[in-house]
Amino acid sequence: MKWNRNLPIGTRDKLFKEAASAYDMEHQVNRSFHARGYQRIETPVIEFDDVFSAINDMNLYRFFDKKGRLTVLRPDMTSPIGRVISTTGVTPPLKLCYSGKVFRANEELAGERNEMTQAGIEIIGFASIKAEIECITSAIGVLKQLGITDFQIEIGHAAIYQAIVQTLGLQENDEEAFRQALQNKSLFGIRSFVASHPSAMDAFILALPRLFGSVDTIQEARDLTNNVVILEALAQMETIVQVVDAPEHLSVDIGLVQELHYYTGAIFRGYADMSAVHFLSGGRYDSLFAQFGEDNWPAVGLALNLDEIVSLKRRTLKNKDADAKVFIHYSLETTQLAEEVLAQTPNASLSFFDELSESIAYAEKWQFSKLIDVSNNTILELEVTS
């Protein structure tokens, strides 16, 4: 039988330490959210295509079921949660948390993962800016618990981009060109756009690629516009930064645009010095639930890319002494003694080899720091050389 030994584009195996770290991290993040009063929710990996109509521009893994209905592997967790609320009769306000796989069919050679493990929270039914502040505060707290310290969360606002699009009356192609130039912070692209779409907002739009950094950037943006919607958005961003009060971790980006188009209010992304991509994203999406026939419940969400955080920790953190592994060699006659030593020894495992030499060779190969031999009914500790 022939089969392809290669993995599909954008997927990878996790082995041993990485797999264990990913598993532990997912549970740690969920415990952190649970401690802040969030209730866990789980949704299927496969959903009907209609569930994601709000993000139909994203590359999805689509396929037909046996009845000919179009289904997809979920590309995000927010839309399925909206579907749950519309079909189960659960009534907001709600504070939900989740974790699981999401799938996005990115272009080949783009260097992006097509399969990711996400964990996050959804705060539904709260119109107050306290919900945005809670998301960001939760993110900072959980990242610190995970040992990530050199991160930055950029605060933006979806209404700024939307106000420009509406004021200029941009149609689909022009809007996409503007979005790409803004996402890439392309000075040339923005200048070309303004040249072909002149308006009273020219000075503000031309400045967008450089309007990011400290909270002082908000005042610089105010000085360039009198648009009421944009001024209100800037005021909300300023409030969030001031109340969270974590200048070492917060910055602003006036031209921030999220990949998903359903955001309506404050938006945010998280980066770290050793990470090439953002590992945190979220924001307010007050109009998403209307697509499910529900009222426009106000909502804010936060998503963490756990795979990227695991990789980040592996690149930046050294192994701690607590990670030292112990291998226990025993005979059938000393099985009980071996179990007692195992119960009392952190990060230990039993050897199933009959010969001590085999146990030593295995411990050296897999970088155990110590071997305990109880095969003669005594406890003998041996150092392992790797």
Which strands sit side by side, in order, in the main sheet?
1-5-6-12-11-10-7-9-8
Shape: elongated
How are helices and strands ordered from N to C?
HEEEEHEEHEHHHHEHHEEEEHEHEHEE
Count of helical segments?
A: 12
Largest sheet: 9 strands, mixed
What's the number of extended β-strand segments? Answer: 16
Beta content comes to 15-25%
Q: Helix content range of the residues, please?
A: 25-40%
In terms of quaternary structure, what is this? single chain
Separation, N- and C-terminal Cα atoms: 39 Å
Could you name the ranges where pLDDT drops below 50 across 5 or more consecutive residues? none
Structural class: alpha+beta
- Give Rg in angstroms: 26 Å
Structural features:
12 helices, four-stranded mixed beta sheet, 386 residues, 16 strands, alpha+beta
Structure at a glance:
The protein has 386 residues and is of the alpha+beta class. It is 37% helix and 21% strand.
Q: Could you explain how this protein is built, in words?
A:
- It is a single chain.
- This protein has helices spanning 16-35, 78-88, 130-145, 158-168, 172-183, 187-196, 202-207, 216-222, 228-244, 306-316, 335-344, 356-365; strands spanning 39-40, 46-48, 61-64, 70-73, 94-103, 115-124, 151-157, 212-213, 250-253, 266-272, 280-284, 299-305, 326-329, 348-350, 370-373, 380-383.
- It has 386 residues and is an alpha+beta fold.
- It has a nine-stranded mixed β-sheet.
- Strand 13, helix 11 and strand 14 form a beta-alpha-beta unit.
- It is 37% helix and 21% strand.
Secondary structure layout:
Blueprint (H helix, E strand, L loop, with lengths): L15 H20 L3 E2 L5 E3 L12 E4 L5 E4 L4 H11 L5 E10 L11 E10 L5 H16 L5 E7 H11 L3 H12 L3 H10 L5 H6 L4 E2 L2 H7 L5 H17 L5 E4 L12 E7 L7 E5 L14 E7 H11 L9 E4 L5 H10 L3 E3 L5 H10 L4 E4 L6 E4 L3
